């Protein structure tokens, strides 16, 4: 299984808090944003740097600035929205695309109902966000859609993953790097991750 589990103590501590059934929507949203920011810090480690001249109040000096590709954050609707702000805090210039998929009740296959992307996807590093990587069906379909639209450099960022979902994305998209805060045990018969945290969309938006 090819997946990066982010083991930073602050991330792990906050994952425990966010799992708790006692955590309400406001705290859930705040924790998700904080975890996303911390994960974002880790997954941007390989950004290339270039030298740049900077005039300090005293002298000219050589500093570093981020070079290379710009970023697009692509939340999978709707729970993926909860991971956008944490990344925008770190990368305020990133563009945001949105992809919405529903599961066809007959074929059980994901069907696109909304897709609005920046025009220059091929030139960007794409960070797809979805808190729960369960069966992997929607993540894999969203990534296929992005590739059809030209995306070449894709990272998938999830809060909690089931091994089943990681395997599906690894199989369908071996080029996509997966980052998670927790790799859980398994899916239950209803497609929920165990131990998981329940329905992430409902917990973010206070629906049920
Ligand atoms: N989606 C969720 O929100 N939670 C799960 O456990 C599985 C899929």
From TrEMBL:
The keyword Ubl conjugation does not apply. Pathway: Pyrimidine metabolism; UMP biosynthesis via salvage pathway; UMP from uracil: step 1/1. NCBIfam families: PRK00129.1, upp. Residues 5-207 form the Phosphoribosyltransferase domain. HAMAP family: Upp_B. SUPFAM superfamilies: PRTase-like (SSF53271). Belongs to the UPRTase family. Binds 1 Mg(2+) ion per subunit. The magnesium is bound as Mg-PRPP. InterPro entries: PRTase-like (IPR029057), PRTase_dom (IPR000836), Upp_B (IPR034332), UPRT (IPR005765), UPRTase/APRTase (IPR050054). Its cofactor is Mg(2+). Catalyzes the conversion of uracil and 5-phospho-alpha-D-ribose 1-diphosphate (PRPP) to UMP and diphosphate. It holds the Pfam family UPRTase. Its EC number is 2.4.2.9. The gene is upp. Allosterically activated by GTP. This is Uracil phosphoribosyltransferase. It catalyses: UMP + diphosphate = 5-phospho-alpha-D-ribose 1-diphosphate + uracil. One of its GO terms (molecular function) is acyltransferase activity. The keyword DNA-binding does not apply.
């Amino acid at each position: 299984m090819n997946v990066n589990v982010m083991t930073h103590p602050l991330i792990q501590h906050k994952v425990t808090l966010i799992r708790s059934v006692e955590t309400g929507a406001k705290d859930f949203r705040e924790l998700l944003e904080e975890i996303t920011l911390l994960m974002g810090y880790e997954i941007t480690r390989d950004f290339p740097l270039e030298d740049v001249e900077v005039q300090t109040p005293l002298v000219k000096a050589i500093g570093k600035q981020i070079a290379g590709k710009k970023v697009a954050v692509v939340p999978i609707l709707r729970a993926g929205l909860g991971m956008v702000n944490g990344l925008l805090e770190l990368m305020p210039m990133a563009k945001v695309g949105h992809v919405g998929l529903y599961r066809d009740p007959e074929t059980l296959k994901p069907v696109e109902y909304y897709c609005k992307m920046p025009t220059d996807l091929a030139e960007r590093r794409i960070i797809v966000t979805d808190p729960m990587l369960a069966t992997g069906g929607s993540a894999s379909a969203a990534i296929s859609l992005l590739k059809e639209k030209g995306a070449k450099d894709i990272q998938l960022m999830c809060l909690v993953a089931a091994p089943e979902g990681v395997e599906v994305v690894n199989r369908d998209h071996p080029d996509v790097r997966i980052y998670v805060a927790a790799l859980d045990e398994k899916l239950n018969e209803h497609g929920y991750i165990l131990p998981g945290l329940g329905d992430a969309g409902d917990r973010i938006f206070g629906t049920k």
